[in-house]
Design a protein that fits this description.
Strand content: 15-25%
CATH class of one domain: Alpha Beta
Helix content: 40-55%
Structural class: alpha/beta
CATH architecture of one domain: 3-Layer(aba) Sandwich
Number of strands: 7
Distance between the termini: 36 Å
Largest sheet: 7 strands, mixed
Strand order of the largest sheet: 3-2-1-4-5-7-6
Length: 240
């Protein structure tokens, strides 16, 4: 999936950035990226828009690698990486103009607490913008649902409307809610094709058993996406 380990990579980062208005004065904004991983989006936003960014991740290895990849960049002083959880954000109340996330909050169990924490650290009139993997409009068989969660190591998923309810309950107002299901299914096709194209390299690096398990898991997610068992969404909201 490259440096930006979310659906659509840098192109999707650019789309979300423009929806949140970073192209109209991003250098004046303070942004929190929750589950910032390798820091790819943070670097893209700092370089393209001059935005001041805090990247928050709970995994020390991710923080260390993100810091390594950011060293010596002309915009490095714009980015700070913090080790911590989205459930207990290490920041004062009303700190950020924007809270950002891309396809990562599916790894966080208590999404109600996450959204409430986001509301706490956002300034008044601040903006929340994120995408995430979610349950779809059709309930999968229980066995299939369990395997999908096991393969991705997800504790659980929210739904398109479920996230909207949590946002409304937190003192924020939904401005946009978008079903990205068709594009999500298309990307599962892309990921499977990429795996097949890299078969020999994957086997050489990780072994044939690893390749077979990866193929099994992606096939399961491909089927689930096309059957509408799983989905992907985007939400934009403002703190009142």
């Amino acid at each position: 999936m490259g440096e930006q380990i979310h659906v659509g990579g840098p192109e999707q980062t650019e789309i979300l950035a423009k929806k949140l208005g970073l192209d109209k004065g991003g250098e004046k904004l303070h942004l929190l990226d929750i589950c910032s991983a390798l820091g790819g989006p943070a670097r893209q936003l700092a370089e393209n828009y001059g935005t001041k960014i805090v990247g928050l991740d709970i995994t020390l290895e991710m923080i260390n690698e993100a810091e390594k990849r950011t060293q010596d960049k002309s915009y490095a002083e714009k980015i700070e990486y913090r080790l911590g959880s989205g459930l207990d954000i290490p920041a004062h109340d009303s700190t950020f103009d924007i809270v950002w996330g891309q396809d990562a909050w599916c790894y966080i169990r208590d999404k109600s607490r996450l959204i409430n924490e986001i509301s706490r650290v956002l300034k008044r009139d601040g903006i929340l913008g994120f995408t995430d993997w979610i349950w779809g409009s059709v309930d999968p068989p229980e066995k299939d649902a369990d395997y999908l969660m096991e393969f991705m190591v997800f504790p659980d998923l929210q739904t398109l409307d479920g996230y909207a309810i949590l946002i409304d309950n937190s003192g924020m107002k939904i401005e946009e809610k978008q079903d990205l299901g068709p594009d999500f299914a298309n990307h599962m096709d892309i990921y499977l094709n990429k795996l097949h194209a890299a078969k020999q390299d994957v086997i050489s690096g990780f072994g044939e058993e690893f390749y077979k398990e990866a193929e099994k898991g992606i096939l399961a997610w491909q089927k689930a996406a096309h059957e509408k068992w799983v989905n992907r969404g985007m939400w934009i909201a403002k703190k009142l």
